[in-house]
Amino acid sequence: MVERKGINSQTLLKRLRDALAEAGDGQERLDRITYLIACSLEAEVCSIYLRLDEATLELCATYGLKAEAVHQTRLRVGQGLVGRVADKAVPINHADAPSARGFRYMPETGEEVYSSFVGVPIQRLGEVLGVLVVQSKDARTYSDDEIYGLEVVAMVIAEMTELGAFTGPDKMAIAAQHRLPFFVKGLRGQEGVAEGVVLLHEPHIVIANPVADDPVVEAERMQEALEALVSEIDVLLDKGASIGEQRDVMVAYRLFAQDKGWRKRMFDSIDSGLAAEVAVEKEQTLTRTRMARVADAYLRERLHDLDDLSNRLLRILTGREDAEERGIPENAILVARNIGPGELLDYGDKLKAVVLEEGSVGSHAAVVARSLAIPLVIHASRITREALSHDPILVDGETGLVHLRPDDTVAAAFREKMAMQAEAQEAYKGLRDKPSTTKDGVNIALHMNGGLMVDLPSLEPSGAEGVGLYRTELQFLIRTRVPRRGELVKLYSRVMDAAGDKPVVFRTLDIGSDKALPYMKRPEEPNPALGWRAIRIGLDRPGVMRMQLQALIRAANGRPLIVMFPFIAQFEEFREARQKLLDELQSEAQRGHAIPSSVRIGAMLETPSLAFAPDQFFEMADFISIGGNDLKQFFFAADRENELVRARYDTLNVSFLTFIEQISDRCDRLLTPLSFCGEDAGRPIEALAFAAMGLRTLSMRPASIGPVKRLLRAVDLGEVRDVIDEARGSGEQSVRPALAAWLKARNYPV
Ligand code: PEP
Ligand code: MG
Question: Does 733 score more than 90 pLDDT?
């Protein structure tokens, strides 16, 4: 074995940068890099393999192997030593490579004469873009320092790939990955199809100069950025602006930000010649590789925190702008790893669709997507890594399909589907003024859910009989402070004006759980969905609720008013909340304000306990609305935001359906009007089943009214009831298969 001096990465990186600054196309640049690395390591061979697609690597440049093998030799990820480096994303270092397990000899390259092999992944943010390989004739083991130096160089190659430094004369990237169409099947979050361009919630940072001009200056930049990071976190913590889970994350951030190991590794990278941003990304790459491997949910969360922290640090280093400053392109389709309802609302109504790598159908972000009436796909794996800003993208919320950079055939098929959907929408318009009455004469009132000003124009064209759920918290979520009473009065009266004679059910502020107002202090909670939320906050901190009730009364200004309190779990909560409204009515009258011509006060049934409340509750409530999203999560003890458990329990599960029936029977007996306003009411088969269980009012997003009405008008509810009863009697877990088969056999429009 021959001892050689280690790679001087600072010098090598500078040479690389200078070489790249010289004119030349992508291929010349790659060739030059391999030459410089081989010289620097005194090795006979240096090769760069880049990934063509998910499964294939191609030899794109070499110094030392046969030139005719370039762009000819291909191998699969996982195949041979090079393929293994790409697959496992770890270096392989062998003094006698031909005898190594998995070695694959590629005769066209002439590599048989080389004994030692070292390969390191070329990766960026956890994504392997290729492999950098160095080979020599002598049986030599490369030192840890040399491998570290190669990793640093590989990091720069990865950055330059992202910069498009290796595009050929035809402008096609030699590492073609980001140019090729990418397709992923996620899960349906919200139906609808859309065509547009990618808007990244967290855009990739393109680092113009991955090599530091002066490592000392670079280290100072890093030091300053780290200090800014810590004080940013401290400010957030001191202001108490972060609440609940967010606070936990902030506390974790602060710990991570002070982690000595993390800091040292980044300063070491700078020392070897990397720009500060690349040093951060090098750490991020490590984090993401680990993230992909750990199964433990808690650990993954912490790694996510660390990843987010790195993003923050990058934002400080690059002075990156947020979405608002960047500007939102026309036809923007938002691509994000995950997003909260408030962040989604920040984009307003400018988005055509949303694609999330994680996310959940039951989350409030999904509720917001529904209220914005845009398609949503969740669990679209790898999408944030594959998508680049402004990439063309097609989204099918119904099938969960997402096509990035689609080819012409896919785009044409897609446009056809969009045209068909537009046609269906036209057909629904024809139903607008028709009653939603079943064949056997049962009338089911269909109302719409809303909460944003953009919802109101839907009232007329959807044919909704009214607004069955107006989520007032959405207006609080889009602001940076508690809205003033005057603002709310204006807002609510505009809502009532727009609704005209149609009723609007205003639900009082339903915050907490995942609907966290960034400007409102809240205690840390181990389990926010089961925690201090909705009416519990309203009663314990009555100030905001009082202001909201006053605003509603003033907005009504002599017109009828309907108010609904969310998340009532026991009679007393309703009695107390109702009394607060009655008190406000009295004092508003004393202050000389016009009081509403009539007031109806209802409760949302979102916890199973309320179904078993005393008769007096049902008699006192002017109406009850089943909040099926929450009710279902508590009924099955399955978090509505956790896809692992949410989808396990069908809404048409016999137990849940029977529970809905019992609530309906009890309301009938006690003459309490009942409605259902959870998301399931807008799904035609579910809506049908609820109607068969006795529900006569359903409230849903406006776009669902057409499809639900069309099905209701086509069926005989008595027959549906028989099908459900038979399925219930047969011991099935869910009545869905039986009901779906029955509808299909009769060609009913589902
Ligand atoms: C529900 O829980 O079903 C509901 C309508 O309220 P939200 O989805 O806003 O919690
Ligand atoms: Mg709810």
Answer: yes
Is the predicted pLDDT of residue 485 greater than 90, yes or no?
yes
Nearest 5°: the CA angle 330, 331, 337 is 110
pLDDT at 326 over 70: no
Rounded mean pLDDT, 297-306: 69
- At 158-213, the pLDDT tens digits run 887 776 667 655 545 554 444 578 889 999 988 889 999 999 887 767 677 888 88
Asked if residue 141 lies in contact with residue 116, where contact means CB atoms within 8 angstroms, the answer is yes
Q: Are 644 and 362 in contact (CB under 8 A)?
A: no
Query: CA nearest 82: which of 66, 62, 68?
Result: 62
Compute the distance from residue 513 Cα to the ligand 2 centre, in Å.
Answer: 10
| Closest C-alpha residue for ligand 1 atom 8 | 629
What's the length of the chain?
750
Give the per-residue pLDDT at 169.
Answer: 52
Amino acid occupying residue 450 = G
The β-bridge partners of 396 are: 193, 401
Q: Are 118 and 91 in contact (CB under 8 A)?
A: yes
115 Cβ contact partners less than 8 Å away, ≥ 6 residues apart: 95, 96, 97, 98, 136, 137, 138, 139, 140
Q: Is 479 helix (H, G, I), strand (E, B) or coil?
A: coil
Q: Minimal CA–CA distance to 466: which of 475, 477, 455, 454?
A: 455
How large is the average pLDDT for residues 346-353?
A: 85
- Long-range contact pairs involving 5-8 (C-beta distance under 8 Å, separation at least 24): 6/143, 6/145, 6/146, 6/149, 7/40, 7/41, 7/145, 7/146, 7/149, 7/150, 7/153, 8/40, 8/149
435: which DSSP letter?
-
Residue 656 to residue 712: CA distance in whole angstroms: 21
Using the structure block, give the residue that is written with the tokens 């669709």: 353
DSSP-derived 3-state class of residue 689: helix
SS (H, E, C) 130-165: EEEEEEECCCCCCCHHHHHHHHHHHHHHHHHHHHCC
Q: How far apart, in whole angstroms, are the C-alpha atoms of residue 98 and residue 112? A: 8
Task: Using the mean position of ligand 1's atoms as its centre, give its distance from the Cα of residue 510 in Å.
Answer: 9
**What would the pLDDT profile of 608-656 be if each residue is shown by its tens digit?**
999 999 999 999 999 999 999 999 999 999 999 888 898 899 999 999 9
- Segment 100-111 shows an average pLDDT of 81
Residue holding tokens 């950098």?
A: 132
Q: CA–CA separation, 242 vs 560, rounded Å?
A: 39
Query: Which domains are seen in the chain, by residue range?
Result: 9-168 (3.30.450.40), 182-410 (3.50.30.10), 444-745 (3.20.20.60)
Residues with CB under 6 A from ligand 1: 367, 469, 471, 510, 606, 627-630, 677-678
For residues 425 and 202, the answer to whether their CB atoms sit within 8 Å is: no
Q: Nearest-CA neighbor of 713 among 465, 427, 439, 445?
A: 439
Q: Tell me the one-letter amino acid at 624.
A: I
693 and 657 Cβ atoms separated by less than 8 Å: yes
Give the pLDDT confidence score for residue 243 in this predicted structure: 45
**Overall average pLDDT of the 21-28 stretch:** 74
Angle, helix 276-293 to helix 215-239, in steps of 10 degrees = 60
**What residues have a C-beta under 5 A from ligand 2, the ion?**
606, 627, 630
pLDDT in tens, 141-156: 888 888 888 888 888 8
pLDDT at 387 over 80: yes
First to last CA, the chain: 73
For residue range 430-477, what is the model confidence (pLDDT) as tens digits? 999 999 999 999 999 999 998 877 778 888 888 999 999 999 998 888
Pocket test for ligand 1, best of 367, 467, 626 (most atoms within 8 A of CB): 367
Spatial neighbors of 196 by CB under 8 A, at least 6 apart, are 330, 331, 332, 333, 352, 353, 392, 393, 395
18 Cα: distance to centroid of ligand 2 (angstroms): 60
